[in-house]
Amino acid sequence: MPEGDALHRVARRLQPLVGEHVEVETPNPRAQIGGIAETLDGRRLEAVEAVGKNLLLRFEGGLVLRSHLRMNGRWTVAPRGAELRGRPWLVLRGSRVEARQWNGPVLELHTRGIPRLGPDILERPPRIEEMAARIRRGDQRRAVGDAILDQRLVAGIGNKWKAEALWEAEVSPWRPLAETGDDALRAVLDAAARLMRGSLDGARRRNRVYRLVGRPCSRCGTAIASRGQGDDNRIAYWCPGCQR
Ligand SMILES: [Zn+2]
User: Fold this and answer.
1) Second label for 237, Cα 20 to 30 Å away, from 25, 55, 86, 108?
2) From the CA of 5, how far away is ligand 1's center (Å)?
3) Distance between CA atoms of 30 and 37, rounded to whole angstroms?
């Protein structure tokens, strides 16, 4: 699944289209409901930004197109007029480049406002206190590893950075919020922001727990464990030795 940092990279690659009056097409029949092409074609694209795992394309007239890629969606950017094979959901064509969004699955046109999302973990600087406050307003029996994936509380953290941030902060994904102090919670959020910002800026860092089940922890040598967590049962990875 594309995580927040990958979406920020896409947002950067789409910047050449910003400020242009773009041609908008929706070649895939599944994307043709909602009149997106009809409404947006020829409008000026004012901004492209990643908010959590959503890409928001703001057009003149207060129109916002929200793209969420879920598991299989992706964006490609090609020179204007480059050969097109297949049927992307969306084509945005500017004077120099065209962007194509493949495999949907979420493409929504909003005329005002967007769904409520938590503060973006990649904001500079990240609003750690607001994220922590949102997390504290919810059910404190919830596990910390589950809460930080909730995009209404913190936008942008995906499964990989969840695992890596919890390892950095030495906090188990299974620890209930009620038993997670404010310092520990802040440490987890700080680690996620730092690691993801580093990744966005091109830093190389090897994974410490993510997809390393059975391998020895680089901090304490205990074998890395994994188990499904939360409503979506996404796999959590952690070190039972040093993440209490
Ligand atoms: Zn360990």
Assistant:
1) 55
2) 26
3) 13
